[in-house]
UniProtKB/TrEMBL annotation, chains A, B:
GO cellular component, one term: cytoplasm
Protein name in the entry: Ribonuclease J
Textual note on the cofactor: Binds 2 Zn(2+) ions per subunit. It is not clear if Zn(2+) or Mg(2+) is physiologically important.
Organism: Tractidigestivibacter scatoligenes
Functional summary from the UniProt entry: An RNase that has 5'-3' exonuclease and possibly endonuclease activity. Involved in maturation of rRNA and in some organisms also mRNA maturation and/or decay.
NCBIfam families, alphabetized: MG423 (TIGR00649)
Record InterPro entries: Metallo-B-lactamas, RibonucZ/Hydroxyglut_hydro, RMMBL, RNase_J, RNase_J_2, RNase_J_b_CASP, RNase_J_bac, RNase_J_C
Family: Belongs to the metallo-beta-lactamase superfamily. RNA-metabolizing metallo-beta-lactamase-like family. Bacterial RNase J subfamily.
Residues covered by the Metallo-beta-lactamase domain: 20-216
Length: 554, 554
């Protein structure tokens, strides 16, 4: 039994240094609950890395306490670490979420050959007990159906986690945020609120998802030929609106792109996406229909080079191609970092003679995250004693903290944490606690390791200036140079025979100088080769390729 | 003398495949005039490349015809190829532009040790004759002062080139677009209009530069401590407004960042930027002033890692640091591709405890390019017989062409060209002509060469998966393996001794198999090593590092 004055510890392991890899641990006595287990996608700073996970060593070390994993919704920044975490845990820990979210997770786990996970389906209003935690789920609106917020009652205090949310009064599936539950919890008293900060710098109120429908229908109705709509495959409400608009104007829908095919299948089976079978046709049957009766729902809204839209735009899709007279709707916003890839596809499509609609020309996308007015409204409804902004970059967390001050929460009760920091709650009071091991883990092919800055720095350097290998074979019997082999990759001057010849001569004379007399250690020669070659190349080319010297005695 | 029915040829060498490296050649008989000579900055697709230039071989081959180079304004995408072009030309060709533009170019040429260029200063309304070309300059408004449009009268037809422009009725320096001249040329008849397409997808009318003033003044006035404003150093009107706001609220201005120091100096000397000496102070004198009397004007609005703002945010600036209570204004938009770098700096500043204002929170930036209503207005004023959208990516050119159709220009008279294409104008009629050599040239250190796709592909591959060098020394006398040296850079498994040992064993047995009997050619062994190592690493790591095999006989 925990002592009477035990603290509830809130430990974010991810999600506070960017939009991604959300994972927060809640611990009281011998009981631990995790909310979300997400991944993050790498950017230019992490070349060649496939995925980034939060370092969840702390969870593994305390596995015996872990009573359950709660997933608020089905986006990868909330679910994507699960395949890795589940394989690292020695016990089967139950996973609590909505039917749709579990359906999406099931598919992902199957890809990793993870069999029969312990799924526990919950609904809006479901209450579960995990050790000292009494947990209630409540409906929230977001850019994926069946998203939850979480209320936790513990002996040390009450906590609410909004999950990702916007406050949509006219959601496509009619499932509004459960304001009654939120206000009931508020009446019980919330000691700490954790709330989504993604749009904390954006003034106003995010428009309802329903606002997108008329623009989609208008474009689809008036398009002279086929219409291609690229969107997030998990954005079932958006897909529903695209399907509804298509059917309303007498068009059939074709679905293409792996995740789009998978997610529409799951969502239709589970009853989240409704379109009659006769209105969905196979890509191979398209030729039977006139262009003006076709809508193609596809992946590629982020400019991904292997996506359906990119393949179609480049004439590399197995069954579909885009041509003059087609209309393309990008029903999504580029995620920061993807702007140029998206623009490249738009340019390819423009050259083909397509009309393109994106957010800048028509209301074909709205955010799934609440803006400042919604965040303040949430704070005003919940009236938390303490506030911890989550799910955002430093700018967003700070902006959210300022909003909380505006709503009347004293600055001393607002806690901007870093991943691995902890917040301790006792008798309604919160204060910072000790930090735990945290960080990031890189998935690089089959290797899943702590971030190694040397590897990434080397890759960036290789990308900048290429590599020169210089192999020197020295005859051990007389310290003379047997062979010098010099080759470059990713360097503009590799085919400049004069320069490469001069470089070879330089290495030879450098080695001969070092070896004169009794010879030198291999290490000395290696360093000498590297330095002289680097300096020579800088002086001749003003580039600094990575020099890999290999010195061997033969 | 050209024949009576000679054509005026319009040949864009750059600027039609993206925002950058603008360069257009106009040729009639034995006379050639160039408008703009710009560069483009590389993106992720060109790792390690310093700059991208248009391939101007065609100009060098016809140098004897080149009568002059006209520069519309001082931005690098219109001037940056000049240092390279001037060095490649054998004669001194005169350069025509405004006082400010020439002042900016002079500084750049000096950096390249180009002495006493043939500068010819022109004003709004200036008319010059270059061979068969009668050329008139007219004032336009843009995000840099002293920008021109160009009207050309030739025996084969009249052409107008807008340069980069917006239609600003309340420009900071009072120099409005010369509508009278534009309408006078229109009355003479314009056979071809070339017009700026940058914002052709943006509805409405771009706000006046003056719209930014009140927001800047409000933030600067109410900031509790120092205010740092990052902007483009060539945006003299913006700098003027920042200086004016600072002086109006009793603050002194400090200028930092190399290009900001240079450009403010040039602009003040030439009379384009007006601020009294007593209101500008040196960074080292800052400590004498209280925080609330300071504004720092700095570079870094694009998140450049070596810029003043980045250095200050990271505590690496020689004289200034940013701390809690400071306010930072990003008075610029991130250029596509720079979004993440800018956001990274904003996050660093947020962690320091700064208040940050960018375009999403206050009107601290407006574009320098006209939106759809301005583009249509220009088309309506000019009433060109033929239209050629320039200065944009494929999407922008197509959007601009659609606007032209809306204004009544028949589709057959609208020409979307690629770089290197030509348009021939005769008796007011335009048609596509033959193409000329064109393309891009990369500046990579000291090497200035045609784009080499192999080099860039290798760099991207090196960045993705790193490099493995495998050196095999074979004793020529008995075909046995003398030494195997295996090393990796930028690979996560380079320190995995078991894996590296297994790889070495694999290479040894592969080489021994190949060398059995009479031995094998070095090339055969090299290929064998590369293939077996690549396959082994893929099977063990699911990565594909570049394998550089070096096989030598000793």
């Amino acid at each position: 039994m925990p002592k009477k004055d035990s603290a509830l510890k809130i430990i974010p392991l991810g999600g506070l240094d960017g939009i991604g890899k959300n994972m927060t641990v809640f611990e009281y006595g011998n009981d631990m609950v995790m909310i979300d287990a997400g991944l993050m996608f790498p950017d230019d700073e992490q070349p060649g890395i496939d995925l980034i996970l939060p370092d969840y060593t702390y969870v593994l070390e305390n596995e015996d306490k872990l009573r359950g994993i709660i997933i608020t919704h089905g986006h990868e920044d909330h679910t994507g670490a699960l395949p890795y975490l589940l394989q690292d845990l020695t016990h089967k820990v139950p996973i609590y979420s909505s039917k749709l979210t579990l359906g999406i997770i099931e598919g992902k786990l199957a890809e990793h050959n993870i069999k029969s996970p312990k799924f526990r389906e919950v609904q809006d209003g479901s209450t579960i007990t995990l050790g000292a935690f009494n947990i209630t789920f409540f409906a929230m609106t977001h850019s994926i159906p069946a998203a939850f917020g979480v209320f936790m009652n513990t002996p040390a205090g009450n906590v609410m986690h909004t999950g990702d949310f916007k406050l949509d009064q006219t959601p496509i599936d009619g499932v509004r945020p459960n304001y009654a539950a939120i206000n009931r919890f508020a009446a019980e008293g919330i000691d700490v609120l954790l709330s989504d900060s993604t749009n904390a710098t954006r003034p106003g109120f995010t428009p309802s998802e329903a606002a997108v429908g008329p623009a989609l229908r208008h474009i689809i109705k008036n398009a002279p030929g086929r219409v291609f709509v690229a969107s997030f495959s998990s954005h079932i409400h958006r897909l529903q609106q695209i399907c509804d608009a298509s059917v309303a104007v007498g068009r059939k829908v074709v679905v293409t792109g792996r995740s789009m095919v998978t997610n529409t299948k799951v969502a239709r089976e589970l009853g989240y996406l409704r379109i009659a079978d006769e209105n969905i046709i196979d890509a191979y049957d398209l030729e039977k229909l006139p262009d003006e009766q076709i809508v193609v729902l596809c992946t590629g809204s982020q400019g991904e080079p292997l996506s359906a839209l990119a393949r179609m735009a480049n004439g590399e899709h197995k069954s579909l191609s885009i041509h003059e007279g087609d209309t393309v709707i990008i029903s999504a916003n580029p995620i920061p970092g993807n702007e140029k890839s998206v623009q490249a596809i738009i340019n390819s499509l423009s050259k083909l003679g397509c009309d393109i609609y994106d957010k800048s020309q028509a209301l074909v996308h709205v955010s799934g995250h609440g803006s400042q007015e919604e965040l303040k409204l949430m704070l005003a409804m919940v009236k938390p004693r303490n506030f911890m902004p989550v799910h955002g970059e430093a700018q967003h967390l700070r902006a959210h903290a300022k909003l909380a001050q505006q709503v009347g929460i004293p600055e001393r009760n607002i806690f901007i944490l870093d991943n691995g920091d902890s917040l301790e709650v006792r008798h309604g009071k919160a204060r910072r606690g000790p930090s735990v091991d945290s960080g990031v883990v890189y998935v690089d092919g089959l290797s899943i390791t702590d971030a190694n800055p040397v590897v990434l720095r080397d890759r960036q350097r290789l990308a900048q200036d290429g590599v020169i290998t210089c192999v020197v074979a020295i005859r051990s019997r007389n310290h003379s140079v047997d062979t010098i082999d010099l080759s470059g990759r990713g360097v503009s001057f590799a085919t400049d025979e004069v320069l490469m010849g001069d470089a070879r001569d330089l290495v030879r004379s450098q080695v001969e100088r070092l070896e004169k007399g009794n010879g030198a250690s291999i290490d000395t020669v290696r360093k000498g080769v590297r330095n002289s070659l680097s300096n020579f190349l800088w002086s001749k080319t003003h580039t600094r390729p990575m020099v890999i010297p290999v010195v061997m005695e033969v």
